[in-house]
């Protein structure tokens, strides 16, 4: 039995939707894990220098320097993004977000 053009288009649309859902969900999970890993690293980075009071300024300057250098590397070649570079960017975003959350916790 032959399918009509309408049935073929419905079948193709369903295959495309399934392909997009599986593709996006896989990378969304990886990005979410990288973001949460960055948040965990930020929590670790904010508690370790707090044990020694005199290292706070030096640790903050090192963290900001590393974040700025990685931002320059990531956004310098905006057209070419590998998956590993994108995942590292999500870790960096998680670190920044985690440091903001810790700053708000300290401020309240």
TrEMBL record:
Record keywords, A-Z: Membrane, Plastid, Transmembrane, Transmembrane helix
Ranges that cross the membrane: 28-49, 55-75, 87-106
Annotated InterPro entries: Uncharacterised_Ycf20
Pfam families: DUF565
Entry's family note: Belongs to the ycf20 family.
UniProt protein name: Uncharacterized protein ycf20
Species assigned in the record: Asparagopsis taxiformis
The organism's taxonomic lineage, starting at the top: Eukaryota, Rhodophyta, Florideophyceae, Rhodymeniophycidae, Bonnemaisoniales
Gene name tied to this protein: ycf20
